[in-house]
Here is the input.
Amino acid sequence: MKQWQFVSATMLSTMVLLASIWLVYSMEGNRGLEQQIQGQAQQLRTVQQLQGASNNLLRAMIQVSTKNENMRALLARHGINVNIQPPAANTEEKK
Here is the structure.
């Protein structure tokens, strides 16, 4: 093997080694980012579940507040005003 062939092969193998090291390092960084994204996605799913439960709870509290002045006052303290509409009167006249 001539000297220039030896130098070329050595340089090429060194570049391949460096590229391999960089690839492994990049893959480890991607795994960390992937785990972070999965954690955030789980937090979003949890928030969505809690939001559904809190909406159901709020609806139930509003329903109770139609018959309970204390519940209506509690909701009003937290900025939720419940307006109770009187039942619609029968507009048809009796004949």
Q: What stands out?
A: The mean pLDDT is 87. Residues 24 and 91 are 79 Å apart (CA to CA). The chain has two helices and no strands. Helices lie at 3-65, 69-77.
